[in-house]
Amino acid sequence: MGDSIGQAGSCFEATTDRVRSAWKNFHSLLPVLTNSGISLKVRGHAYNACIRSVLLYASETWAVKVDDIHRLVRNDNAMIRWICSTKLCERIPMSDLRTRMGILSIEDVLSYNRLRWFGHLQRMNEDKWPRKILQFEANGSYPRGRPRKRWFDNVKHDLNKRRLSISMTQDRDKWRNAIKPSRHDAESNPR
Description:
Elements: H1 12-28, H2 30-33, H3 40-55, H4 66-84, H5 94-101, H6 106-123, H7 129-134, H8 151-162, H9 172-179, H10 183-188
Helix pairs in contact: 1-3, 1-4, 3-4, 4-5, 6-8, 6-9
């Protein structure tokens, strides 16, 4: 389950590989995931453990762009609709299907993974290499135009969205409770 990074440093290749691997696992588990004799909650737990874990492998380090998130959401929604035996023409909101299955939106899971890793990095000793990479500044001039989206830009967005401060990371239990996605977060994001 290796991870790949593009030449430009984007996670397009990584998300594409993850989607391909997730669909492969999904098709192999299709008899279980579409079995109407098993409750949707149990199928949701199986989907979360066996498919989403493959889809979001190493996602805590991705500098995702809007296109990457749309690709992940689109494929996640297709799998969920297949499991629930619903079609787009039925117009059932994805939030209802996720609630029936007892799973969160993929955006909430991505944010949680990123913030969890950020908390680990902040509590890490200054001499460890992951912490050094976080604080690394490259010398030189930047090309014209808007800068590329970085991982820390995503983290800043997550922190602002949840109204969290970096100082909260030092208390591990407080940080864990603060970043845990709630059902309210899942219902406010209807995609």
